[in-house]
């Protein structure tokens, strides 16, 4: 671990937070009337989860949430980004409300507010109610409308205390990994026939924005994944493949939200329904735009298939994916490229101009196997915060930064093999132990408070 200088000064009022998601931490998978979700079913399929685990208990946040709120208070963050489990609120995705499930979030929000921590709920973080998934999930238009109904129910109950809302988390990953390549729930390998899931998620977002606004919400955003895309070489084949991948992963999910149109006519023609009418809902104005940043992707020409981050890329896909060469890797094998965050913010500003609302970094973090002495995580966060500060000096309007994640947790198809937390969780006992990175951040936030306005 290197010796760190104090972090540069961030603007007064800059929002500091940490993030989690319901399926990854809550557990209590059949308690209080919660219905099953697509990920529950996926974890039961042989070979889908790296260590053969499931999230039936996860980190037992459902029972230990007061302890986790106490950790948040000790850490000194301004805000806590968590997600609501749609099937805990509406076990079938629609219809009968499960009041005990919504009561759980009501208690959590109350306690966060009492602790002086701003609750920032995400309405959907990949846990589609299984009853909906079995009818086609996000491939069906109905799901978008049911999602808006769910948003209305939640906002009516929590909106008097929740100031800031997130509709969806990373619709690109659910579309590409869940419906396209089948390595995430629901495990469909539809390739480009997965694109209706992208459109219906975006439509659900827009309809949910309307539902939230009807309940008085005035701070609404989305958490989209973004990162630079670089060609493997200067060859026309590689640069063309990189341009296509950039469109598919970055622009396909941002252009409709911010520009009111899809970036590629050929892709748009694969989308269902009255697309032009839907774009009016999808383009409902946002109060801020959330960015999840982890690392760039290097892209080469396709046609031969391959493997990237443990994912098999079929030969039918017109690109191959690679990590940035010559860089340190995290425990999950991801290249550490802090300046990619600066590049991402610069590129978004250039592409969208005044159509880009203020930005929140809604996720940034890394996995390392270290138990509590996680100096590499401190190095990672320090470098990325300095890269973020560089973007601020260049004029990027970034209002906050959320670390992924508060706790070690169930890391989707990786099971419990990857630890992203500032807090170590012993999965046998559920004991929480703050890591060195937790204490580093606590000191940095305390120093910010004592320094006063900047």
From TrEMBL:
Keywords: Carbohydrate metabolism, Cellulose degradation, Glycosidase, Hydrolase, Polysaccharide degradation. Belongs to the glycosyl hydrolase 1 family. PROSITE patterns: GLYCOSYL_HYDROL_F1_2. Its EC number is 3.2.1.21. It catalyses: Hydrolysis of terminal, non-reducing beta-D-glucosyl residues with release of beta-D-glucose. One of its GO terms (molecular function) is beta-galactosidase activity. Coiled coil: none annotated. This is Beta-glucosidase. InterPro entries: GH (IPR017853), GH_1_N_CS (IPR033132), Glyco_hydro_1 (IPR001360), Glyco_hydro_1_beta-glucosidase (IPR017736). It holds the Pfam family Glyco_hydro_1.
